[in-house]
């Protein structure tokens, strides 16, 4: 069974476009996670609050780690649970700024851990989209 050059070009272009679309989706997801972790999510209309009266209830945290759950209070929000707060290992932070993704949903602290996890799909998405763009370009060159 033989495959024509046109068949290979069309397949390469289609795979390239799929990689661009999938990479772009991963990139957007990573950008969303990084924006949440840095507080830039407030620029796109998400609710951002600063909480005080922080109680992390975790005495096993080493210096510079992230605590999975803390509790804090803010005006109009009351006492609520906050996820992924940076912690110095000795004292609970005085304040935590956090983003609420959906109305009535969970609060996520602006933390280095969230930013780090967001960089994974962001970089993978950028690389995948770039590779897909290269494949589309090469398929177009071979088809001429």
Secondary-structure-derived class: alpha+beta
Oligomer: single chain
SSE ordering: HEEEEEH
Overall, the morphology is elongated
Q: Could you give the order of strands across the largest sheet?
A: 1-2-3-5-4
List the total number of helices.
Answer: 2
Q: Hey, roughly how much beta strand do the residues contain?
A: 15-25%
Write down the overall mean pLDDT. Answer: 84
Terminal-residue CA separation: 24 Å
Helix residue percentage: 40-55%
Instruction: Outline the low-pLDDT stretches.
Output: 1-9
Give the radius of gyration. 22 Å
Instruction: Compute the number of strand runs.
Output: 5
The main sheet comes to: 5 strands, mixed, barrel
Helices and strands in order:
Layout (H helix, E strand, L loop, with lengths): L4 H34 L8 E9 L10 E9 L3 E9 L9 E5 L6 E3 L2 H32 L1
Helix pairs in contact: 1-2
What key phrases describe this protein's structure?
144 residues; 5-stranded mixed barrel; 46% helix
What does this structure look like?
With 144 residues, the chain is α+β, with helices and mostly antiparallel strands. The chain is built from two helices and five strands. It has helices at 5-38, 112-143; strands at residues 47-55, 66-74, 78-86, 96-100, 107-109. The protein has a five-stranded mixed β-barrel with strand order 1-2-3-5-4. The longest helix is centred in the N-terminal third of the chain and has 34 residues, at 5-38. The protein is elongated. The two termini are 24 Å apart.
Task: Summarize, please.
This protein is of the alpha+beta class and about 140 residues long. Helix content is about 45%, strand content about 25%.
């Amino acid at each position: 069974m033989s495959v024509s050059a046109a068949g290979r070009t069309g397949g390469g272009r289609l795979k390239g476009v799929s990689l661009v679309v999938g990479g772009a989706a991963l990139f957007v997801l990573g950008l969303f996670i990084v924006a949440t972790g840095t507080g830039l999510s407030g620029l796109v209309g998400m609710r951002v609050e600063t909480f005080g009266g922080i109680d992390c209830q975790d005495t096993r945290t080493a210096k510079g780690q992230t605590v999975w759950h803390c509790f804090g209070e803010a005006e109009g929000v009351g006492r609520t649970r906050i996820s992924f707060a940076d912690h110095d290992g000795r004292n609970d932070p005085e304040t935590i700024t956090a983003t609420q993704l959906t109305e009535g949903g969970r609060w996520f602290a602006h933390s280095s851990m969230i930013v780090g996890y967001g960089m994974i799909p962001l970089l993978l998405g950028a690389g995948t989209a770039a590779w897909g763009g290269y494949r589309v370009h090469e398929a177009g060159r071979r088809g001429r």
